[in-house]
């Protein structure tokens, strides 16, 4: 049960998650991206030259067919491998430190906390927007807000998890988990209220925006679900194999 063993399995699962994410994004998300681009082009046909932040034909370095195929695949695989590796290393670092949880269960817990703190909660504050939404002049600020909130969410998730682990022996598992979750929820709610609000939807069709954001959340969930389920299964299998080896050695020592 070494960090290297976890990392190798995390990278492998991340690779598979990248391919799965690509398929979901291509089939579920890309149609809504195409709809958003069509709406944008129809509404800005007269002044597209002034809207350099969202041009999709002249001056575009990568064509849309390449963006929605090889570009999307490359990005999905890269993100999947990176996230899989990070989750595996974090899972390896907490083995044996979360109560009496087995390595497989602690890996599942790490994956769940990662999805909530890295993907779900930041999405609720700063949801994904299609190409036609948002001004090109504010893209830097919006990106900073998003990643800043991700850092806050991850930091408080780690703090709340450590707090719950410390309190388990004193107040029991149930109360400790409630305390940790409560601290995290209060922290991200306060942070969400204090951080700037982004509202640049304008007159963009609400149904198209909803379908796009729903597809984005489904894509994120696919990435984390494949990593969580796959890595949990591989780590659990590794643990059972190592436990069998230890038992055989212990039995052999008694003969």
Report on the structure:
This protein is mainly α. The protein has 2 domains: 3-133 and 205-254, no CATH class; 136-200. Helices cover 78% and strands 0% of the residues. It has 6 helices and no strands. The chain has helices at 3-43, 64-94, 103-125, 139-171, 173-194, 206-254. The two termini are 27 Å apart. The relative contact order is 0.16. Residues 48-52 and 54-59 have low confidence and may be disordered.
Task: Give the CA-CA distance, first to last residue.
Answer: 27 Å
Mean pLDDT: 84
Query: Percentage of helical residues?
Result: over 70%
Order of helices and strands: HHHHHH
Indicate how many domains the architecture comprises. 2
**C-alpha geometry:** flat
Summing up helix and strand content along with how strands pair, one would put the structural category as mainly alpha
**Whole-angstrom Rg:** 22 Å
Largest pleated sheet: none
**Percentage beta strand:** under 5%
Oligomer: single chain
Total number of helices: 6
Q: What is the count of β-strands?
A: 0
Instruction: Give the uncertain stretches in residue-range form.
Output: 48-52, 54-59
What does this entry show, briefly?
By secondary structure, this protein is an all-alpha fold. The chain is built from six helices and no strands.
Secondary structure layout plus pairing:
Elements: H1 3-43, H2 64-94, H3 103-125, H4 139-171, H5 173-194, H6 206-254
Helix pairs in contact: 1-2, 1-6, 2-3, 2-6, 3-4, 3-6, 4-5
């Amino acid at each position: 049960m070494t960090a290297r063993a976890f990392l190798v399995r995390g990278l492998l699962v991340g690779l598979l998650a990248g391919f799965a994410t690509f398929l979901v994004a291509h089939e579920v998300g890309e149609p809504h991206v195409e709809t958003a681009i069509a709406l944008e082009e129809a509404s800005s046909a007269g002044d597209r030259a002034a809207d350099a932040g969202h041009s999709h034909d002249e001056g575009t370095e990568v064509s849309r067919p390449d963006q929605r195929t090889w570009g999307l695949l490359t990005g999905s695989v890269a993100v999947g491998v990176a996230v899989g590796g990070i989750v595996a290393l974090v899972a390896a670092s907490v083995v044996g430190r979360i109560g009496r949880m087995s390595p497989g269960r602690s890996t599942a817990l790490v994956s769940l906390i990662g999805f909530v703190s890295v993907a779900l909660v930041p999405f609720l504050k700063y949801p994904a927007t299609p190409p036609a939404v948002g001004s090109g002049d504010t893209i830097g600020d919006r990106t900073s807000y998003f990643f800043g909130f991700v850092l806050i969410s991850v930091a408080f998730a780690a703090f709340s998890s450590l707090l719950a682990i410390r309190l388990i022996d004193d107040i029991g598992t149930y109360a400790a988990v409630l305390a940790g979750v409560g601290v995290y929820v209060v922290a991200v709610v306060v942070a969400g209220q204090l951080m700037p609000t982004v509202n640049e939807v304008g007159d963009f069709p609400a149904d198209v925006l909803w379908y796009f954001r729903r597809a984005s959340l489904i894509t994120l969930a696919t990435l984390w679900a494949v990593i969580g389920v796959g890595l949990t299964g591989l780590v659990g299998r590794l643990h059972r194999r190592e436990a069998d080896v230890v038992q055989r050695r212990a039995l052999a020592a008694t003969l």
